[in-house]
Structure formats: C-alpha cells, structure tokens
Write a structure and sequence with these properties.
Arp2/3 complex 21 kDa subunit ARPC3; 186 residues; mainly alpha; 7 helices
C-alpha cells in the first residue's frame, strides 16, 4: 500500500512541477513585453531571467534547465525577439545554465538562507560566462567583434539593474514561499 501511495505522490509532485513550470514559461513570454514598455531600460532588466531562476528553485534543476533552454528560442520563434541567432541561441545556453544551477545547487546545498544566495550568485555568474563564451563562438572567435570589453559591457554593466532585481527579489521570495508552503519539498 505504501508503494502505491509513494507512486501517487511522485506523480502528483511531477504534475505540480509541470504546472509551475508552465506558469514560469508564461511569465518568461510575458515579462519582456512589460519590460519593453520602458524602452531605454527594458533590456537592462533581464526579464526572462527571473522566471527561469525561480523555476530552478521551485521545480528543480531538470525543469529549470529545460525552461531556460526553451524560453528564449520559443520567444524568438513566436515573437521575433530576441533575434534567433546569435541572441536567442546564446541566451538559451545562459538561461539553461541558470535554471540548472539554481535548482541543482539549492537542492544539494544545506537548506539554509545563505544557500539561496549562494545558488543564485553561482548560477548568475556561470550563466553569464557561458553566454559570453557562446557569443564569442558565434562571432567566429573574433575578439574584435566580441572581446572582453564587449562581454563586460553586455553581461555586467548593462545588466546591473537586472542583476540587482534578481539579487533583491529572488532570495526573499524563495525563502518566504518555501517557509510558508505546506509543500516544503517541492
């Protein structure tokens, strides 16, 4: 009987994660429209990053990675933004890394408040480095077209508002929702 109950709970958790992931995918499609209303800073806010990182934390590394890989490509195909190549392809790798690492590290680090911050920061740094490497490969390993200065400008300086939003919103949201939820082991 416990095997049947355990199997039922596994299916219920998978369904729950799929529904949450679908919600995060919808947010990844919608938030760039909202951020785009602020023309000068729309791209600086990194609106697709938030739902992918949250998906990693709440749904696990598998769902976070898949959502991160799919969202930029799907949004490019449906709405034409970001441009498929090289932007959506590079963003797909970056966001896939975000979703994977935020979920993976959060699961395997001690369940402390500091683990949320550590998981987030490592995911953000690794994702940006992967994006920079992919972008460099896409321009044919030409440092004149995409060198360190361009990487630093695009990945860090331009993204400072988005980075701050991620650091200020995600950890408290994860901590609060995980603590208040009857489903602590999402």
């Amino acid at each position: 009987m416990s095997e049947v109950k355990g199997n039922s709970m596994t299916r219920h958790n998978s369904l729950y994660r799929m529904v949450l992931s679908s919600m995060f995918l919808a947010l990844a499609m919608l938030l760039p429209f909202l951020a785009g209303q602020l023309e000068k800073i729309g791209n600086m806010l990194c609106p697709m990053h938030l739902p992918v990182l949250l998906c990693g934390f709440f749904c696990g590394w598998q769902w976070g990675a898949v959502l991160g890989l799919a969202a930029p490509l799907l949004r490019s195909l449906l709405f034409g933004m970001p441009v498929l190549f090289p932007m959506a392809v590079c963003m797909s790798l970056e966001l896939g890394c975000y979703g994977f690492l935020s979920g993976f590290l959060y699961r395997y680090l001690p369940q402390k408040r500091s683990s949320v911050y550590l998981s987030l920061v490592i995911a953000m740094v690794a994702g940006r480095l992967l994006w920079g490497g992919a972008r460099f490969l896409c321009v044919g390993l030409d440092a004149d077209q995409f060198g360190f200065a361009a990487f630093w400008s695009d990945a860090v300086v331009t993204a400072i508002p988005g980075i701050l939003i991620q650091l200020l919103l995600i950890p408290p949201l994860v901590i609060l929702l995980k603590r208040k939820s009857p489903r602590r082991n999402w």
